Amino acid sequence: PSPSAAPQLDAVIVGAGFSGLYQLYRLRALGLRTRVLEACDNIGGTWYRNRYPGARCDVESTAYSFSFSPELDQEWEWSERYATQPELLRYLHHVADRFDLRKDITLRTRVTGAVYDEGGHTWQVTTDTGETVITRFVVLATGCMSAVKEPDIPGAGTFAGRALHTADWPHEDVDLTGRRVAVIGTGCSGIQAIPLLAEQAAELTVFQRTPVYALPARNRPLSAAETAELKARYPEFRAAQRRSKGGTLFEPPTRSALEVDEAERRAAYEEGWDSGVLSGLLRTYTDILVDRAANETVAEFVRSKIRSIVTDPETAETLSPRTFPFGTKRPCLDTGYYATYNKPHVSVVDLTKTPIVEITPRGIRTSDREHAVDVIAFATGFDALTGSQVAMDIVGKGGTTLREKWADGPRNHLGLLSAGFPNLFTVIGPLSPSVLSNAVVAIEQHVEWITDCIAHLRRNGITEIDATPRAEADWCAHVADLAAQTLYPSVDSWYMGANVPGKPRVFLAYTGGLERYRAECDAAAEGGYRAFALSGGAD
Ligand code: NA7
């Protein structure tokens, strides 16, 4: 082999969203020569790309924000309970400016691959701009939902009108006034966009394959008094958030849904429904996600709400989920979603009865007819959790690619390091709590663990850290075992990789909760990271 080149950088971070910005802040504070490479024209990650009308966080902004800087907490003002995408993006720009992060971020530079040098303990990172960078560490901060799932529908390229995707919405205002608009997809993105698209469109047709359970967001402006009150107790709030199971604060349930009578259950569900919190119904009883009968009580409650809002009984039935338990696909928070179907120019096509056959130059052909439209908005989702990593040509020890290694599903230790791919960390990737928790709290935990780990390695002259195959096998088994105790794996969802043709069916997230996960990560760091394979002396 050719002699190893000395690293030009200590760390390359891939992606400039919440994860990449915080990782840069932390590694720079350690004194590392660090660069962030970002494919998009600007920073923000998820909150840069998902610009569709109605895009909004469904975790309260006061909780879905960085906790690492008490000063930042005090100076930033959230205007609403649930921030819109533009407000979240303004926040991330403020963070980048306040901590002077931009000077180490290179935009419009997509990482295409990385090859590990086993002699030098370095990664050679390549980009679509033709650059090659040699670095000791790589942190993949590429997000859980960044690889857009292209619509797998015949004829998708033939449409003569305007095709849009919620995850790649144009920067300029898209004026849909007077247009006939189709939306394909009714996940969280579709549900947020549909009420606003309906305000503009002359005709809105929603093509629904699977209805979801959506709860009202009860969004509202935050008053000055509320904000002042929160700011006064922000330090305690942040500390409690870090100790919590999912990054949000609530009293855990103690009883089964089946041990109380119907009136009591109904009252608890009404309260959960009115709370405007995504997990408001999940947190009512202990067994919603583990027992089908318990789950059915809440599923039927949501259906009864849909029937009470949607005036046409047939439409209400079409919108009512019946094929999967409540919560096993991600629930959604909506603002006026179900009521939108009471408008005379809005309709839903039930694709389970009349499936899409093809997209034509004029619109969408279902098995019974052609629907002529001017615009198709695809809200068809993502290759979640693994898509952004396997899109890169990452070559580890022995010439194995990450894509090959993960052909039957992702494998790693603690979601952080995959055996044979040393010094390559992942923030909120697969087999970590990521998508089942408040993502910002999960990100901070990962970034801080990675930072402490790198600091330890450097202090001790260790130039390589790798997951051991044994620890990795144990972790994968543990994640699968925990998931198997829930209803999640019984459902074809993106949590299971089921939304992407050919993707292996593996439950992709850790269901044990952030609190337990944090303890697992801390334990693995004990004794000088003895749960990992360490070696030194490449320099
Ligand atoms: P999701 O939740 O993956 O939703 C995608 C939607 O698109 C869902 O209703 C799918 O139906 C539908 N879909 C996908 N492909 C097709 C085709 N070919 N034909 C018809 N319908 C289709 O993505 P979102 O962007 O809404 O949300 C992703 C996450 O981002 C969300 O959970 C939050 O965490 C933030 P299906 O259910 O597969 O039948």
TrEMBL record:
Among InterPro entries, the record links this protein to: FAD-binding_Monooxygenases, FAD/NAD-bd_sf
Cofactor(s) this protein cannot do without: FAD
Pfam families linked: Pyr_redox_3 (PF13738)
Q: Which UniProt keywords apply?
A: FAD, Flavoprotein, Monooxygenase, NADP, Oxidoreductase
Q: What family is this?
A: Belongs to the FAD-binding monooxygenase family.
Name by which UniProt lists this protein: NAD(P)/FAD-dependent oxidoreductase
Q: Which organism is it from?
A: Streptomyces nigrescens
